Amino acid sequence: MKIVRLLLLLLLALAISWTLNAIGIILPWLFGSMIATFLFIRFISDEFHFPKWLGNLGIFVIGFEIGSNFTVDAMQEMLGDIWNIFFVSLLIIILSLSLSVIFMKMTQCTPETALLASVPGALSQMLIMAEEDEKADMLLVTITQMSRIVLVVILVPFIASFFAFEPAGAGDGEPAPVLTEVFEPSMLFIVAGAFVLMYIFKLIRFPVPFLLGPIFAVLIWNIMTGHHFSLNIEFMNVAQILFGIRIGRQLTSLLYQLNGRMIVSMLIQNILLILGTLFIAGVYQLFTEHEFNNLFLSAAPGGIGQLIIVAVEMGADIAMISSYHIFRIFFIILIVTPLVSWYLGYRRRRRGEA
């Protein structure tokens, strides 16, 4: 029965996604599967088994698409842009932490909760820290972090659609051939390497190992062989459906845990964050040669997987956007998280002395 329900959900997601694609909706395969999941849970059954590995498979495929864009030339461009990457990431984190003050006042939560709920792009680390801090509201931190991901998926594509891109690949020569045209047995080493790197990232508790593993595996392949490829669009469509079901299930579960104050507070905080990102991208564009949309998607808060799906659909510079978000992940994990942890520990010690 579990398999029958899962197959029914997949068929429903495919049908709705195909329909949205046919009428020209933005991100049809992602939104279609999210809508299908909501409708399935609401009107058919909320008891269905969606294996975790299926959602991870979608993330894994997205990681391959990201990695395929990291060619030697793209890496050199990224290194030349490193200071822009650093300052944009720093500005977004400062903006997020500043908005935590507004969030704290609106929800009447503790400073610990507001701080952990506001750090962008580090869901697992913030949840671990919320578990360890008795003053943090674990539920509110979880819902706020997850709702930001959903809101970014919904709002960012529509905002980005108002700003036109130059034709994809303009001035960059011939596009890379698709995987099915150039596949050879030696390319299986990429998959093996991706699994090894995923295991290492999981072992050291690094975020999104199912995404970073294939990214770095394909990156190493590109540097060592120089044989570039891109994924067939069909692979990305399947990945979006699997990923969309996963997000849709999370969104549906969140709806039953929210109250009016939470909804208003999270909407205000996340909308201000997105508008602030728009402002930062607009100002920063005056000092660089990057297109506005590339800067906006590079700076936008949210998970790298969701934003890369948006970038693929919009014809954006995936290598640039990925490099900004990967740098932000490392920056948050290696610098911001330890600082937040130290600050919360300092507050606990102060309370103990008092």
Describe what this molecule looks like in 3D.
This protein has 354 residues and is mainly α. The chain folds into two domains: 1-49, no CATH class; 71-163 and 203-208 and 235-353, no CATH class. 77% of the residues lie in helices and 0% in strands. The protein has helices at 2-22, 28-44, 52-68, 72-80, 82-107, 111-118, 123-132, 138-160, 179-182, 188-203, 209-225, 233-255, 260-285, 292-299, 304-314, 318-353. The chain starts with a helix and ends with a helix. It holds the Pfam family AbrB. This is Membrane protein AbrB duplication. The chain crosses the membrane at residues 53-70, 82-103, 148-165, 185-201, 208-229, 263-287, 294-312, 324-344. One of its GO terms (biological process) is regulation of gene expression.
Please describe the topology of this protein.
Elements (H helix, E strand, L loop, with lengths): L1 H21 L5 H17 L7 H17 L3 H9 L1 H26 L3 H8 L4 H10 L5 H23 L18 H4 L5 H16 L5 H17 L7 H23 L4 H26 L6 H8 L4 H11 L3 H36 L1
Name some characteristics of this structure.
single chain, 354 residues, mainly alpha
Helix content: over 70%
What is the chain-wise order of helices and strands?
HHHHHHHHHHHHHHHH
Tally of contiguous helical segments: 16
How many beta-strand elements?
Answer: 0
Structural class estimated from helices and strands: mainly alpha
How many angstroms does the end-to-end distance come to? 58 Å
Detail the poorly predicted runs.
167-173
Biggest β-sheet: count, sense, barrel? Answer: none
From the alpha carbons, calculate the radius of gyration and give it in angstroms: 20 Å
In terms of DSSP E residues, the strand content is under 5%
Number of domains: 2
Overall pLDDT metric:
82
| Outline | globular
